[in-house]
Amino acid sequence: MNWNDVAVLLPEIIVTIGASLLLLGPFLRRKPRPAGMSLGLGAGQPAEVSTGDESAKWWMLALLVITAISLIGVSWAAEGLALSAGFSQMFALDAFSIFFKLLFIVVIAMVALLSDDFLRESRYSAWEYYSLLGFALCGMMFMASGVNLITIWVGLELMSLSSYILAGYYKNEEKSTEAAMKYFILGAVSSAILLYGISLIYGVCGSLNLMDIEKSLSTLISNDALMFGIMLLAAGLCFKVAAAPFHVWTPDVYVGAPTPITAFLSTASKAAAFAIFARIFYSALHDFHLDWSNVLATVSALSMIVGNLAAITQTNIKRLLAYSSIGHAGYVLLGIISLSDWGIRGILIYTTVYVFATLGIWATILMMRRHEYAGEEIDDFEGLSKRAPFWAFAMVIFLLSLGGIPPTAGFIGKYYLFSAAIEAGYGWLAIIAVVMSAVSIFYYFKIVVAMYLREGKEADMVITRPLQVVGAVALAVTLIFGVLPAPLITQVEQSSHWMATRAAVPHVGR
Question: What are phi and psi for residue 223, nearest 5 degrees?
Fold first, then answer.
């Protein structure tokens, strides 16, 4: 490893050091003991720690800004850097990874803003909370740049371990603890399945580097052990993106976790999982496309059907959005199985617009909160059009985007994904996607009906500046990229060019 390798790793190094320093925040800001207090046993309570310190948020946002600047700087200089052979076999800084890393940084910044009020009012440490978000970001950044299955797995586990703790951040709340335990147990099982699949792929191909795996597969006609390994790998990844039938953890975790963490799990965590899903299957496993595509097509159809139909009966909005996210995982899988330039562009576009629309919804939900858990029932939105007409309008736009209705950005994403599926010969799957999108409009409009056609009770809303910022940014992205999608499409084309080239390689022996 040389200094050029360190330079390429600079954003990850900054995040790691910053997240570690955030852990020291409570000790650095410990309140002094009263004069003359003894340090012996029975001398009194230990020094109190400031848990809701406002400065923690600013340190976190400063860390994210520095990380983004370093990432942009490194990306400009990366082309001229000579990396060591061993390092380049593990880590890549390409346009695809840079796109996702910048998206992760923006999402974590918005989650930090969503968390501001709940941390200020809670009895839990803000410093530890932001530190865990920092470590999760570091794991996601390694996932996006990983070109070795072990690098990807280590990044995935770092993100997952941080997520397990964050899901149970209400340590004394039964729902939060239950959510964390379910998430941890099922996540551990999925990680074991994923690792077993990786070991089988290594046994057949003799390497964990994605390009080496690609070269090995190009000479194979069929191999049962390899196909079993690919299926196990896909099963582990489907758990991370909450695709059916690997979705059973999603509703309970979304409901039990603190609402800002639910926002994190439904956006950043899901986007990171789709990033590695696309990189692995586009760059390493495309030669066995005919073997795994039909399996993932079944998973995609099942996710869309189960997610959208189960959401119809929900009255708890967090559980409704959990099932909705399962359906959206099915939509994004259309881009994976199509294995085309339209498919990879659809993944990047849809992931981006889904993330911002979802964050806007969570910002609006947090405005409704009354206590540690947000106003979670659809009935809580009754009369919102009179109490806060602008945010009721914004909520409608976010829901229309998730439903894929023009002129919102969600329509552009679904257009690319559905077109990719049709182009790849999965017209039947595109029909299911269109029908399930229509179904999603039905249950999304249950919220719209509550906001505009019901009176509701008079209740104060907590519309703070951080929530306004997140909601306004999400609304601007959803509308601007819906009406003027060209800038996003251009950026996505540049970021997906290498992946699309890999997908276009002839399928040797298939």
Answer: -160, 120
Compute the chain's Rg from CA coordinates: 23
Give CA–CA dist 318/297, Å, rounded: 27
Amino acid at 371: H
Phi, psi of 91 (to 5 degrees): -145, 135
The type of residue at 428 is W
Which residues are 316's β-sheet partners? 377
Q: What is the C-alpha to C-alpha distance for residues 379 and 399, in angstroms, rounded to an integer?
A: 17
Q: How many residues would you count in the chain?
A: 510
Crossing angle for the helix pair 270-283 and 317-338, to the nearest 10 degrees = 10
- Reduced to 3 states (helix: H, G, I; strand: E, B; else coil), residue 316 is strand
Q: How many CB atoms lie within 10 A of CB 48?
A: 10
Q: Is the dihedral of CA 304, 431, 269, 124 positive or negative?
A: negative
Amino acid letter for position 261: I
Angle value at C-alpha 271, between 304 and 87, nearest 5 degrees: 135
- Are residues 278 and 499 in contact, defined by beta-carbon separation less than 8 angstroms? yes
Which token pair is 336? Answer: 């994976």
Half-sphere exposure of 125 (CA within 13 A, CB side): 18
Place of tokens 């794991």: 139
pLDDT tens for 263-303 read 999 999 999 999 999 999 988 887 777 778 889 999 999 99
Bond before 407 cis per omega within 30 degrees: yes
d(CA 103, CA 268): 8
pLDDT in tens, 423-434: 999 999 999 999
The DSSP result for 57-80, as a single string, is HHHHHHHHHHHHHHHHHHHHHGGG
- Maximum alpha-carbon separation in the chain: 82
SS3 290: helix
> Whole-structure pTM over 0.85, yes or no?
yes
* 348, burial (CB in 10 Å: exposed 0-12, middle 13-18, buried 19+): buried
